[in-house]
Amino acid sequence: MISRKKFIAGNWKMNKTSAEGVTLVRDIVAAVGKQTDVEVVVCPPFTALESAGAALEGSSVKLGAQNMHFEASGAFTGEISAPMLRAIFTTHVILGHSERRTLFGETDELVNKKVLSALKNQLKPILCVGETLAERESGSTLKVVQTQTERALEGVSKDQAQTLVVAYEPVWAIGTGKVATTEQAQEVHAFIRGLLTKLFTEPVAQKVRILYGGSMKPANAPELLAQKDIDGGLIGGAALEARSFVELVTAAAAIK
Ligand code: PEP
Prior knowledge:
The chain is of the alpha/beta class.
């Protein structure tokens, strides 16, 4: 059986100034900066990326962005491109987060363009998919997740797919304190791995890390992280304090 390295990513959203970000990264690095059993990524807002990157230099902690434009450059006021992110040593980028989809109108087609652009520029996408409460209640969770995943990954090659990270984030669990049960989460994670098998073959699907996101906290993480197809977490609220974020990394490291 392939063992996948656990993966914990912190999505800071629109929080932390550059100086606050440096303080948070320093605390994280002091606690888990030599951690090699878990891949740890912090995703600050754009204005804190470069300073956070400098603060984590020399550690095992990696740098991720929360969004990007799919074009490399041009007349796109207010946007940031993949080459710009790469130039400041960003390695990962969150794409298709439900807040981008619902608040900023991002479609599956747009998410697909961003995924292709990130991969072309050697950025590893953390692709977010997940259903709303209404979709879960109407029994369409798997269909929604299938459509989002397949559309986002159109045109992605087998080789490229190996670098992907997928985050299953039920929209009703994000920032609400409501967590999916371990059974609910594992069911969707296994379903996503099955989809990846169909799209890219079994060996590739076995390599892709599938994260759970949605009110993951130190108290509920061990049970979720122990599930067969849950390879880590995309963390919002609990990533804003070093203590809880570090506890999540430690919980992931404890799973063997
Ligand atoms: C997120 O926004 O990706 C997230 C999972 O947030 P929270 O942990 O706060 O629910």
